[in-house]
Amino acid sequence: MAEKQYSMEKLIILFLVLISHFDAYSALAGETPKRIISLAPSITETLFALGLGDNIVGVTNFCDFPEEAKKKPKIGGMSNPSLDAVVSLKPDIVVVTTDGNPREFEERLRSMKIRTFVFGSRRLKELPGGIRDLGVAMGVRERADKLAKEMETTLNSFNNSLRVTRDASLRKKVLFIIWPEPLIVAGPGTLIDDVIRLLDNENIASRAKATYPKYSIEEIIHQAPDVIIIGKGHADMKEASSSLLERLKSVPAVKNKNVCYVSDSLYRLGPRVAQGIEEFAGCLR
Predict the structure, then answer these.
(1) Who has the most CB within 10 Å: 3, 8, 70, 81?
(2) pTM, rounded to two decimals
(3) Which residues make beta-bridge pairs with 74?
(4) CATH homologous superfamily for 36-150?
């Protein structure tokens, strides 16, 4: 009898533990928030891709994609969002990112009992997991899983093709220019650097001390990149970079006309990354 009673007690304890885990998960993956504020352009794009555009009630001044994001109420910049603006919009949840939002702002939100979700992914390999976590928190787990799988398929397809064709002699030295004057390039720890590595090429700025370092003409000439890629900016980048490229005319990339202009798809760790990788790969063929 004592043994049966002991077994019953163990079953009850196990049941309570399972219930507590279920409750915790349910709290995390509850109903989709009706009023969402996004504090980063990449987050805004991801929320729209998950079908939550109508639920977004506030975005940063830099959230400009998709087009509908421009019409949303603005709460300030990524590094200096307005707490008053956020509070006035009465959000059910505020989505912050570790890549650009001040930690102090997140702490202020929590101290005011405003529910927050922290998107912690900062590198390419972390993106699928980050999308899944966001989807759970937003109550759209299946949609997020589908988007994450699409991202994983893209990454795996490049990895698999490189396993077959990998040849050190085909590796190219690449320079990605963010802005021509002053000359700012993509360095280590950036999404762009991740993609250059994914495509088995060398980012000549990968050993810089900053993620987006200022570079010199002399250094570029010395490193002699085979390909120069210039990202989209707030001006006509062909015109803006013409003077720089003239000064770099002795560099292999310019001499051989391997200068490529691309969109801003790789400026944000979000759903357009797959498109950006394809675009980038086209410049390196």
Answers:
(1) 81
(2) 0.83
(3) 59
(4) Nitrogenase molybdenum iron protein domain (3.40.50.1980)
